[in-house]
Amino acid sequence: MRVKLTTRVALNVNDPSVSEAILQRAKEGLVEQRIQGNFSLKWREQPDGNIFHLEDEEEEEEEEGREQQCSELHENPGS
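The structure assignment produced for this chain is given below.
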């Protein structure tokens, strides 16, 4: 699963304590939503050694386009 995170303040999300706190909060969110069964969450480390990377504007525009297409498909499934 791919997750997009945004922050309101500048922080180093690749800092181990920050990434661990984010992961812990995600786990708590699943429990709060009463997700049943055994599950585990972990970060996938990229070849450069980081977990996260900054999304440039071009990637962001492409992602927004994919999200728009997906929502249109859900709104008009037979089209």
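Interim note for the steering committee: Residues 57 and 63 are 10 Å apart (CA to CA). The mean pLDDT is 77.
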